[in-house]
Design brief:
155 residues; mainly beta; 8-stranded antiparallel β-sheet; 58% strand; globular
Length: 155
Amino acid sequence: TWGDPGDLSDADTDFYLHETYARLGITESLDYVLAHSFQTRTRPFGTTPVNAFKMYGLANYLIWTVNEHVGLGARYEWLYAGEGVGTALSPNVITPGTHFHAFTLGANVGVRGCFTFRPEIRYDWADFDGPAPGPFDNGTEDSQFTYGIQTIFTW
């Protein structure tokens, strides 16, 4: 994706995002997926606020197909919040150079062919050198634990 997102009326902004995926079938029931993402945003020299940034990351998935209705997965993600990220996204919480990590365990459970339930648990943490204790919970923590359930209906 490339272009001007149009969210800043005072200047032109160039935004670029790409994602690349690779999949490897380890066994008949076990797959590995690697995903790479890169995004950057630039503005003309001298424009204030700067609102320019660069971020990139990797995600690693291990997916086990138990049967045609159940799949289990694990995911490890790493994101580098690089140049300008703190000023562009959340100046009080994210410091440029922060490394974000996340580990997730989840399942896909198909019911009656048209419903899929996706419960997951996730732990996030950051290597953080900013002025606040961390980037989570409004700048008060350097880690967090979350869980959720997604329901998908297809027809």
